[in-house]
Design brief:
The protein has a three-stranded antiparallel sheet with strand order 2-1-3. The longest helix has 30 residues, at 19-48. It folds into two domains: 18-79; 93-190, Iron/manganese superoxide dismutase, C-terminal domain (minor pseudopilin epsh fold, 3-Layer(bab) Sandwich), CATH 3.55.40. The chain is 51% helix and 11% strand. The protein is mostly helical. The two termini are 28 Å apart. The radius of gyration is 18 Å and the shape is globular. The mean pLDDT is 96.
C-alpha cells in the first residue's frame, strides 16, 4: 500500500513564511513521499526475485531510511504549525514538563532557539524519552542519523536551507522567530504520551 502525500495547504498565508517558500517546501516533501514509494516498490520487487543479497538491495535498504524519515519529519514539521500559531497552555502537561526539565518554559525556548541557530543543516527536535520521562532538544544532522532511539518527537523545526533561505537568506534567527509564531502547541502537546 503506497504512502500518500498529506495536504498542508492550510499553512499558506502563514505570517513570516511566504506562500512561495511553503509551496517549494511542499514540493520537496512530495518528493520524499514519491521516493519512499519508489524505494519500497523496488525493494519488494528485488525480494520477490530472490535478489535480497545483492548490492542494489543493500543500497536501497539504506536509502529507505533517508526517504522515509524525510517524509515523516516534514509531516511532523508541517503538522506542528498552524496559521497564526496557538500559544502553549502554561497549565498543560507539556509546559509543566518543560519547566521541570529546563527550569522554565523560557529556559527551554532559549535552548531550542540556540540549538536551531547552530551552524549547519538539519532538524531541531524536542524529544520525550518515555523511559526516563525527560525532554531533550536535539540537533539531527541528517534525516536518518542522530535520532534518539525510543524517544518520541514532539516539536520539529526544519533548519535545512530550503526551509528559510527564500524568505530570509542567511538570517536563520529571523526564520526561527517566524517559526515560533506559527507553532501549534495544541498539536505538539498531543504528541506527549
Amino acid at each position: 500500500m503506497p504512502y500518500e502525500q498529506k495536504n498542508f495547504e492550510a499553512l499558506l498565508g502563514t505570517k513570516g513564511l511566504s506562500d512561495a517558500l511553503l509551496k517549494n517546501h511542499f514540493t520537496l516533501y512530495q518528493g520524499y513521499v514519491t521516493n519512499t514509494n519508489k524505494v519500497s516498490d523496488a525493494l519488494s520487487s528485488l525480494a520477490k526475485e530472490g535478489r535480497a543479497a545483492t548490492p542494489e538491495y543493500a543500497e536501497l535498504k539504506r536509502r529507505f531510511g533517508w526517504e522515509w524519515n524525510g517524509m515523516r519529519l516534514h509531516e511532523l514539521y508541517f503538522g506542528n504549525m498552524v496559521k497564526g500559531g496557538k500559544p502553549i497552555d502554561k497549565n498543560s502537561n507539556l509546559s509543566k514538563k518543560m519547566a521541570a526539565d529546563f527550569g522554565s518554559y523560557e529556559n527551554w525556548e532559549k535552548d531550542f532557539r540556540a540549538t536551531g541557530a547552530l551552524r549547519g543543516i538539519g532538524w531541531i527536535v524536542l524529544y520525550h524519552d518515555a523511559a526516563s520521562g525527560r525532554l531533550f532538544n536535539t540537533w539531527i544532522n541528517e534525516h536518518d542519523v542522530g535520532h534518539l532511539s525510543g524517544a518520541t518527537p514532539l516539536l520539529i523545526m526544519d533548519v535545512f536551507e530550503h526551509a528559510y533561505m527564500l524568505d530570509y537568506g542567511l538570517k536563520k534567527a529571523d526564520y526561527i522567530e517566524a517559526f515560533f509564531k506559527a507553532i501549534d502547541w495544541t498539536a505538539v502537546g498531543t504528541r506527549l504520551k
